[in-house]
């Protein structure tokens, strides 16, 4: 049902967009995404399969996170061109497909369906965004080639294109490695992360919110299907948490800093992936989507383009609501109680300890402590003496979304059991 709703709204709005005003297309897009989300919740825990398309627990959990990011992105944008909303809708359709299949050919189609709209969204604003989008496109094409070659080798090793088919030997291991490269690019795992800082900095802030939340959810849903070698995952975890956190220390622009932060969080998510615990990964992603979405929602109200760190100074004095919301987002990303980010990291680290992955666990703990320097620096900057820069608060509904995300982070931090059973049923 979710797939049908997204497909029907995508096709219908492609045609109606030429006659409807842009705000009408925006409202229709929000309606389509909301209906898809409602159908997902109404069928929660009920598997469904039609050929290579299969809705299971993993599909439901990660589609839910992707749709939340898409709704938030469309809600934040006021574009005079209807194509923006269509691109988000098509990307959401690709994300749902990617999360809902084990068949490598359908995965490839889904990857392209979500990637092509993102290339266009990244260059929505000319100038530096064009350079960022070109880098994203070229590296994305290379990653897709790795994925396609991995699929071919997987078929050669197993005689099947369905992930989960048992195999052995060097050809099988190489196939899994290439698939991991293709999906690791979308998840922004090091060393496949080089596009991330430039694209985050050059893209419009609401688009960055979409990339940092929905795209990561879809990519990790696909990575859960790939039985990647534990040694390869451990290496990706180590590289991501080290590169992400250390590079973030030297950044002077908020979006670029949060880009490196997202690489580090991809490493922590890969730590949960290493253990194969979908519930821990799903909860971590939920807390990450809320906190990162909240941070970028605040940044989008400061500037749709670059946000130098100086622009955050004194935000609390200019707008107490946004200042407190940004502080909550930073503390949750850091993983401090009583916010939900604490339980996200706790579950991932606890599962790694159970699996005996002590080396990467210690590295993750140390780098998480390092991240306190820049997260606390960002969070406390909002209370500093304000810079003399113009500031105009966003619309009331955008502020309501900020409040809702902050309250959810606090509620899930105090009562994580509210959603853990649902994630267990779904994952």
TrEMBL record:
What Pfam families does the record point to? Proton_antipo_M
Of the GO CC terms on this record, one is: plasma membrane
* UniProt-annotated location(s): Cell inner membrane; Endomembrane system; Membrane
Enzyme Commission number, as recorded: 7.1.1.-
The membrane spanning regions, by residue number, are 51-75, 82-99, 105-124, 136-157, 169-195, 207-226, 232-250, 257-275, 281-300, 321-343, 355-376, 397-424
Q: Which GO terms describe its molecular function?
A: NADH dehydrogenase (quinone) (non-electrogenic) activity; NADH dehydrogenase (ubiquinone) activity; quinone binding
Per the database record, which ranges form the NADH:quinone oxidoreductase/Mrp antiporter transmembrane domain? 103-369
**Topological type in the membrane:** Multi-pass membrane protein
Example of a GO biological process term: ATP synthesis coupled electron transport
Q: Which domain of life is it from?
A: Bacteria
Q: What class of enzyme is it?
A: translocase
| Entries under InterPro entries matching the protein | NADH-Q_OxRdtase_suN/2 (IPR010096), ND/Mrp_TM (IPR001750)
| Catalytic activity field | a quinone + NADH + 5 H(+)(in) = a quinol + NAD(+) + 4 H(+)(out)
Q: Does the keyword Cell inner membrane apply?
A: yes
Q: Which keywords accompany this UniProt record?
A: Cell inner membrane, Cell membrane, Membrane, NAD, Oxidoreductase, Quinone, Translocase, Transmembrane, Transmembrane helix, Transport
Role summary: NDH-1 shuttles electrons from NADH, via FMN and iron-sulfur (Fe-S) centers, to quinones in the respiratory chain. The immediate electron acceptor for the enzyme in this species is believed to be a menaquinone. Couples the redox reaction to proton translocation (for every two electrons transferred, four hydrogen ions are translocated across the cytoplasmic membrane), and thus conserves the redox energy in a proton gradient.
Family the entry assigns:
Belongs to the complex I subunit 2 family.
Q: How is this protein organized at the quaternary level?
A: NDH-1 is composed of 15 different subunits. Subunits NuoA, H, J, K, L, M, N constitute the membrane sector of the complex.
Name the record gives this protein: NADH-quinone oxidoreductase subunit N
Q: Which organism is it from?
A: Thermus thermophilus (strain ATCC BAA-163 / DSM 7039 / HB27)
Q: Which gene encodes it?
A: nuoN
